[in-house]
Specification:
The chain contains eleven helices and two strands. It is an all-alpha fold. A two-stranded antiparallel ribbon has the order 1-2. A hairpin with a 5-residue loop joins strand 1 and strand 2. Helix 3 runs antiparallel to helix 5. It is globular and about 60 Å long.
Length: 295
């Protein structure tokens, strides 16, 4: 074989690696979304708005004790009886602090460590896509789960709210009224905003997953970090560090219900999540590309 032929041989490997990378991403998405654990998590998330709606319906009866101007409880809960669309907003207020991030923490924590503990990680690394593309595929699958999980909560809340309560024009936090169609659009935007709020924590969970070969340990550590940081975010003595904690701006999605929309805190949230994704994504890459996989 001539020198020219030798230099021509490696050329087809670039599209081959791209093809393998696409195949790995598709495989990761299918594996993540078809696992019984993932389906169970989505089932729990779907059940939360149903339970909230039923509880509000039982408590208010025919709605004579509730409405936009009365009642108590979490944000938007008192408005649910007057408009079932508010159940979407109430459901996100209830699930975002605990249920949604815990579900993401389980999926992200198990992404790499679960493969290592199951003995399948080294077989994945044989593929020509390489470690970097494999890690990106796993992170992308976690991000897709974030979006799917938020959409499940939104769809469940919308269906439950429409079945149990009247729907119609939406009264914004600013006191103005918008049409049901615009309210539905804002509910969709809120679902996307909530999903985006989880990308930093997803990267942190991915990094933790590269530190151990035990899926259970990675999931527990990720959820433990979540609980610890949320506790720190509630301590007034630590006000100075609150704006740098990843859950601090999670509830900024409520500003999408202002008229006009207030963007400042949502922009800060986006920047903070991007920072966490960059820092912990880089740390995960540095760890995973040098990780000794022997099982």
């Amino acid at each position: 074989m001539s020198q020219a032929e030798l230099t021509a041989v490696p050329a087809p490997r670039t599209p081959l690696r791209a093809l393998w990378a696409f195949g790995i991403l598709r495989s990761e998405l299918a594996t993540t979304l078809r696992r019984w654990r993932t389906l169970a998590l989505l089932g729990v998330l779907a059940a939360v708005p149903v339970l909230i709606g039923i509880a509000v319906r039982i408590e208010t009866g025919d709605g004579s004790r509730g409405g936009p101007d009365g009642g108590g409880g979490p944000a938007f809960l008192s408005q649910v009886t007057g408009n079932g669309l508010f159940l979407v907003f109430a459901a996100f207020s209830a699930t975002l602090p605990v249920f949604l991030p815990m579900a993401v923490g389980v999926v992200a924590g198990d992404s790499v460590a679960g493969e290592a503990s199951g003995g399948t990680l080294r077989y994945l690394l044989v593929a020509p896509a390489g470690r970097t593309r494999l890690l990106l595929a796993k992170y992308a699958s976690v991000l897709v789960f974030c979006l799917v999980a938020t959409l499940v909560v939104a769809a469940s809340a919308l269906a439950t709210g429409a079945l149990l309560f009247p729907v119609g024009e939406v009264t914004t936090i600013s006191g103005t009224r918008i049409g049901f169609g615009e309210g539905l659009l804002r509910a969709g935007l809120i679902a996307v905003a909530v999903a985006v709020s989880l990308i930093g924590f997803a990267a942190l969970g991915l990094f933790v997953s590269t530190l151990t070969d035990s899926g259970i340990a990675a999931m527990a550590a990720t959820v433990g970090v979540l609980i610890t940081v949320q506790i720190l975010d509630t301590m007034p003595q630590l006000d100075g560090i609150h704006p740098y904690l990843f859950p601090h701006y999670w509830l900024s999605f409520t500003d999408l219900l202002r008229d006009p929309v207030y963007w400042d805190e949502m922009t800060r949230n986006l920047g903070l999540q991007a920072l966490y994704a960059a820092v912990f994504g880089s740390a995960a890459w540095a760890r995973f590309t040098t990780k000794d996989v022997s099982v």
